[in-house]
Amino acid sequence: MGNCFWKIMGNCFSSPTSDDISLLRGSNERMGPRDSTISDHLGPPPPYVSHEDEDHAYMYFPSPNVSRPASQLTEEEQIRIAKRIGLIQHLPSGVYDGSKKIRECVICMIEFVVGDHVRYLPCMHTYHVDCIDDWLMRSLTCPSCMEPVESALLTSYETN
Amino acid sequence: MANAQVLHAKGLCHSLVICNQYVTQSIMAEGQSTLLLRKQLADLKKNPVEGFSAGLIDDDDIYKWEVLIIGPPDTLYEGGFFKAHLYFPKDYPQKPPKMKFISDVWHPNIEKNGDVCISILHEPGDDKWGYEKANERWLPIHTVETILISVISMLADPNDESPANVDAASEWLTCGSSLSAPGKFGEEQSAAGDDA
Ligand SMILES: [Zn+2]
Ligand SMILES: [Zn+2]
Fold it and tell me: What PROSITE patterns does the record point to (chain A) (predicted)?
């Protein structure tokens, strides 16, 4: 398969080794005509630029399947996590009142019971507090509509 | 433990260093994931979904599933049955399961050892490569059904941006859909795993 035109932009990170990386980089270089398009993509990921700070906040889960106990986090990491928790706690929450409009928490797929603690995201999607808070620590997006919640959070946090 | 939970519920755990939120949550998570997986298993038994069948590898372990995927029509995999395993973490659905094909499947996004490399099974924090958009990553609303639907559509339409099997990727691209022998891309046609 000498003429591989496949755009190799990175291997699956489930099993990358440094060898894989250099190998892939190497084959990119040999691809000639496509070099420019490839190197465009090899830079820092454009869609994430504005979220750069947020991405570092995932340090609580330093890598997949690894979560470090709070005592082993650096001070900087602790501050970021504390900030994230602070932000999440400023999202409106309440007690489910039996409203017919929302019936089920789509994270745990369990129907809301009157008295459940629920959290309302700016997009108006509603989840159990326990279900969504854990998720928001990992990603500040609504799992149903992928609406980022951080901007809304930041404004309400600052005005508070 | 209980104290930490109370503090957390009252929003008094801003100094996270002493907050045991995650300790308590991981214990709660086990109950939640068990319930959620049992519910999905029951739903799939009651209302099977076209294109695959699903069950447990071992009836005593709700975290390990075995699925049989029917090669989607009009693809190189048509006519084949492909067995795969799903391994759920205790904190599912906050974290994604891992998926591995037991049957041989030759595909750009499936490692030669069977590991499925699909962006929706990657955690949102995994930004090492940075080529996936947030909405292509894992979401806690994914179920066995939505995962398998994504995998089935991946079989027909590989993601060219992150080949796990580079040989399959280049082969797919050079021969691609014009390849007329479906057997090439799935070796255990029809008899997938029934040898046991
Ligand atoms: Zn829930
Ligand atoms: Zn939403």
Answer: ZF_RING_2
